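I had to read the description of the data format several times before I understood it. In essence, backbone conformation is discretised, so a fold becomes a row of integers matching the chain in length. I therefore recommend that a typical entry be quoted early in the introduction. For illustration, here is how one protein appears when written out as sequence plus structure tokens.

***
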Amino acid sequence: MSDESKGATRYCRKAAWTLVAITPLIAELALGSTPVRMAWLVLLWIPIYGAGVLLIRELAVRRGRGWPTILLLAVCYELLEDGIGLQALTSPHLYDAADWGARILGFNVPYWFANTGYHAVFTVAIPIALTRLLFPSHRNRPYIGRFGLTSTAIVMALGVLVLRVSVPPSEDPGYQAPLPFVIGCLAVVLVVGVLALTAVPAPDRPVTDAPVPGLLSLALAAGLATLAFFALTFPAFGARQPAFTEGLWVLLPLAVAAAGIAWGYRTLLRWTDSRRWTDRHTLALIGGALVAHSVGGMVIMAHNAVDRLGLAAIIAVTLLAVFLIDRRLRAREALAVA
């Protein structure tokens, strides 16, 4: 193997390890669901979060698929984590998910909806997009080989097991998800996963000259959209249900959130199809969402002043990281022009 080939291999692995590392940091630590004072727990979440998202990214890239496939696989991820690992989708006690309203046939619908949206964006899409920015030469190439892909799948499966044996026995002792639900979860994951990788078409959209927002406008829009999503789908300020609803009325803010997600997705497609869209626009979108996501965590997840101070520190680190990455992207753009 030549030195160039060896360098490329190391580069792929560096990208893979970067994705594995930043995923639980963004999904858990930056939200506050794992507070900074208990940051060591992130090590336990690396198998499910890191390996899970790396597996999603690798499968989609190897099949030549794009973001629709990745987002569908994110739905599968949520079912594995919360449905089988944590058992929160059916538990009458864990995380008070059953109190969010609209518990239909023993299924915690609002909790599932909120966490599916959350994981699709902050556990899957943003870590993958951020890693793409950091390693542009490997955007459409696998990070790991076949052995690595098989190992990643095994580690993710072990991650689901780690969740199952670590969280429910202490937080929800004695509860066992119904076997038909577990089988149904696995069946849905299999069917949706296969369809996502085979039936969903590869990205083939024409490039346009559509105008795109400025960087600051994008960051603000992403932040406001994130806060709106949290306000509509997660209980906050002492409320038992999202958006201070009662009973089945919770389905109304969920419907509004679903409509907003659909509109936002279509709008984002129109912007990213434009030749005016750059990596700096992507970073602005990510940065705005991440800062707002930690602000939302202060309200939804933080239980005391120490936790809020931890999230404030994370916001400061996030802003610094965005600034440094943006400087790197500007230097890259200047070099490309030169």
In short: The radius of gyration is 20 Å. Strands lie at 103-104, 107-108.
